[in-house]
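Researcher: Please generate the 3D structure of the following complex. Treat every line as part of one assembly.
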Amino acid sequence: MDFKNILNQIEQADPEVFEKISPRRHILQSFGSKVALAAVPLALGSLFNKAYGKKTDAVVDVLNFALQLEFLEYNFYYQAVNTSGLIVNADTLEGITKIMNHEREHVNFLYSTIAAMGTPYTPPHYSGSSTSFVSPASFDFTYRGAFPSTVFADLELFLAVSQTFEDTGVRAYKGQAGNLQGTANHPYLLAALKIHSAEARHASYVRALRNAVGFTDEDGSKPKPWITGKVAAVAAVDANYGVGASGYPAEDNTTQLGVNITSLPAVSGTVSASAASEAFDEPLDKTTVGNLVANFFAA
Amino acid sequence: MKTNNVITDPGQEDVATYDVSRRKFFQLAGGLAGAGLLLASCSKGDSTPNNPMASGTVRLGSGDTGILNYAYALEQLEAAFYIQVVANSSFTTAFTDPDERARLTEIRDHEVAHREFFKAALGSSAIGALTVDFSKIDFTSRSSILSAAMAFEDLGVSAYNYAGQLISSPDYLTVAGKIVSVEARHAAYIRDLVTPRSFADILDSNGLDVANPPSYVLSSAGAGAYVKTPIDYSQLPTL
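Model: Done. Output below.
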């Protein structure tokens, strides 16, 4: 993409464009060096939102909410991957490391995108840097002592929490899509949806992995890559699969847009309740997600 | 009448090419697959031999209805594919692991649920049944099936990811989100059957998944390779 050409064209259309964006002119100069390449279109878009007075506060709120979750996920995986004796299987370590790297990329991407138009979120007691984003003191992976064992000393619990984070991340991004609608926000909605499906891929992998190694969900069933009913991996996180505020249904919901999915024809008979539940992931609101993950952050 | 679409495998009960709406008919009359396709291809009443498909063109429509029809078209394709995967007499030899067969059957059921949901939600605005052609896929081969499944799932994810911006109704955007993450779960599972731990290897260097516009998704590089019914998407919203 030729940014100079784009800027020249905009300048022809609006000769005062550089005055309007001058406080942020340095951002343009940093393109290609400090800002990740794919983040540039977003940064550029937000630049013009600022310059032309479009409201970005709501967008910043959504992106910071996402950044908070990504900080949590990345630090969770970082600590796990760097705890000797936790993930001893090389294949599992490869898979979890891939997820960790994606979460770091999400943190970087969101951080640089937000930095171009506002103040990026950092967790409490943040002691990391903008290049590492690692801050163990910011988090409490004992879940305020509620977990039956230590998450980084017990692979079964670690993977159960991983499944929870990924499934909840999917719900959280989905719940924010509606807050990113509108022409001015298209690049942000697109980016959020791209992260949303990435998290769903993670969830699928972790669920299939838990199934393959014989770990079970709280009801004794082997997890599938998709969510059947509202069964959690461990009882402590039941609520992550439950109802949210403002009428958000639990993951076992079988009615979509007023259509009872279980009344629809299937290959034989009608769609089963389990298939109807699995075929649609449910969103969750920001307040509920915030409450659910609050115990993972240091007090 | 195009005849090069008529491809049947004499060794199978299943038809490689069939009209989705006529699935039950073919289950009853498997041996007449070729004749069935003839019916399907002519079913829109075309009478112009030089342009047999023109009058059978499906128009997705405009606005949110157009987007929902777009999704309905993709779900029709996916459902038809997995129905054929599971119904094929080689299913148990192509997939010897009962867990894998269970997962593929579940994916089939999800896609059918998606298809029927869109049909119900669209009501009288729904497009008709599309004619599909899976003759490029060897339904006796695990690798051929998984390769096609991976392409369908990744394509579906990319289609929904892009279409989100084109949707006006918050409710429709949410329901598209409810479906796309399930497609991404499918994609990751299928990818790992093809190559272990490749569940998200399609992401870019920012950890972002793929988004493709309808023009690509419906082209011969995507769904167009398998959907024989011409689809007019010109009225869909654009950015």
